[in-house]
Amino acid sequence: MILSTLRRTFQKYPLASNIVTFTSLISGADLACQAIEHKNLNRVDWTRLRNMATMGLVYYGPVYYYYYGFLDLKFPGKSPRSILLKLAIHQFLFTIPSLCIFYVGMGKLEHKPWHATKDELKRKLLPTYVTACMFWPAAQIINFAFVPPVLRVVYMSGVSFIWLICLSYIKNQPQLPEIFQKIEDLTSGTTRIKAVEK
Prior knowledge:
- The chain is mainly alpha-helical and 198 residues long.
- It has helices at residues 2-12, 14-38, 46-74, 80-109, 114-146, 152-172, 178-188.
- The protein has seven helices and no strands.
- The model is unreliable at 190-198 (pLDDT under 50).
């Protein structure tokens, strides 16, 4: 019943439904992230939440709707070739520009000077992308192989909830968490040696 109602709503109002869904999920993901960071929700950063919601409203919701529609139009069907092409396009052509737009867009919403936004992008883009490459391929194979086109953004929004928690955490930490710092070390070719006192 719920699934059929959801399907009808998305068929009748596809763009609006996808925008509302993604905006709600990115907002919920940021709230969840803040709760994890502060161990409760007594210290909600409403400006940060507004900025994340704005990215969902003006970027993720509408862009993902048209983007997946384009992929389905150009590479119809669920053949292995079609799925692999869509996966490759998403992972190697779409994700990096999308992450750049996220970091630059958030920098604008936070009123950061360009040099600060550029520095954050330089430090966090590659670790974020490598993390995305470890997270998304399996989710995308399921997406392209089994999810009906009309529910594609809904599915991706659900899977994205976990990813968006990670993205919010990476974005809003002054220093990269240790796991992402290790990725930065590997991708930048540097080695950090910690002296251990005995």
